[in-house]
Amino acid sequence: MKTTQLRMLVAIAEHGTLMAAAEALNLSQPAVTKSVKELETRLGVQLLVRSGAGVRLTQYGEALLQRARRVVTEIARAEQELKDMKSSSERTLSIGVSMLAASVAVPDAIEAFRHRFPDSRFSVYECQPRQIIDGLRDGTFDLCVAAIALRDVTAEFQVDPIAVRSQSLAVRNGDPFGAETRLDALTHGHWLYNHTRESWPEFWSQLCGKRTIQEPARVSVCTSHKLYPKLAGESGAVSVWPDFLLDEHLRSGLLTRLATDAQLPELTVSLMYRKDHVFSATAEYFAECVASSKGSGV
């Protein structure tokens, strides 16, 4: 038994004629008549008695009408509830950004988004890469802007690159390591890495290229935006930096960029979301703002 057939039965009872019921439902009278006949055939009983004055329900029709009204009412309530939920969710947006991506594309995207949706409840959180993935997975975030290594990405996410940034190695200004140009000589230092521990082997492999160089004995991982520069400024530390972040500390005189014989892999910043996620209007527009920014904001 189809919901549309129950709606028709309720409309016929309320309006008294097939013509009036058809107009109320925005259907043709033949379509209503056909649907009622199909329902009668399926149930094996006569539901309506037709006359020149209109139609009246048989005892079978009256019995079904009581149930039909309940079903139609509950469906209407459910539709309204879903509509209210959808309207509420479209005014709410939760975004996750990784430390390395916080200043890439995001500031411009937020500005454009707020201009169009000034009354939206907008939340943005700076997180570690693992928190980005977990937050997308459990629905905490609608979408994320993050620098994620290939090793971190899982099949359930859509990953759309939006910006590529170069990287460099740096040491404290005046540190003896600043004179080193060979990667193998730098392995004696205390390395500082700004991503996940799991992605380090892949990074080191890309850094070495075709050469076989023993990994540094000491590698520390730090994803704190405030703590990273302090650790990078220690004697003997060799730190990995996106150039747009390193430039700030070069101007302050704290660090110096290393000119080495190694070519650092580029950093890719991407827009990430679950493949099964149904975007609200606000989430879809924010994604458009991120994509159109082309990685600006640095």
Residue share in helix: 40-55%
Largest sheet: 5 strands, mixed
Global geometry: rod-shaped
End-to-end Cα distance: 60 Å
SS summary, helix count: 11
Q: Give the strand order, joined by hyphens, for the main sheet.
A: 4-3-5-12-6
CATH third-level topology of the largest domain: D-Maltodextrin-Binding Protein, domain 2
List the helices and strands in order: HHHEEHEHEHEEEHEHEHEHEEH
Query: Proportion of β residues?
Result: 15-25%
Number of distinct beta strands: 12
Specify Rg, calculated over alpha carbons: 32 Å
User: How many distinct domains?
Assistant: 3
The overall pLDDT, averaged over residues, is 86
CATH evolutionary superfamily of the largest domain: Periplasmic binding protein-like II
Given helix and strand content, the structural type is: alpha/beta
Overview of the structural elements:
The protein is of the alpha/beta class and 298 residues long. It has three domains: 3-89, Winged helix-like DNA-binding domain superfamily/Winged helix DNA-binding domain (Arc Repressor Mutant, subunit A); 92-164 and 268-293, D-Maltodextrin-Binding Protein, domain 2 (3-Layer(aba) Sandwich), CATH 3.40.190; 167-265, 3-Layer(aba) Sandwich (D-Maltodextrin-Binding Protein, domain 2). The protein is built from eleven helices and twelve strands. It has helices at 3-15, 18-24, 29-43, 59-89, 106-116, 129-138, 183-186, 200-208, 227-232, 243-252, 281-293; strands at 48-51, 54-57, 92-98, 121-127, 143-147, 157-165, 167-172, 190-193, 218-221, 237-242, 255-257, 267-274. The protein has a five-stranded mixed beta sheet with strand order 4-3-5-12-6. The protein is rod-shaped and about 105 Å long.
